[in-house]
Amino acid sequence: MSDAPPIPEGFKSVSVYLIVPNSEEAIAFYERALGAEAITRMKGPDGKSTMHAAMRVGDSIFMLTD
What's the confidence (pLDDT) of residue 56? Predict the structure, then answer.
């Protein structure tokens, strides 16, 4: 059995994962509107889309992709 915690550090019991049509615009909007901070961002194979991104707002983390 793994010693890894069931909920990663910094995450809550339930985590939101958004699928958006334009991640670049969405990330910029969340930064402006919510004061969100990008934690992780992995570009897609085309170099334009987002394969995975994690953002923090206050003490909560949410994730998104195109």
Answer: 94
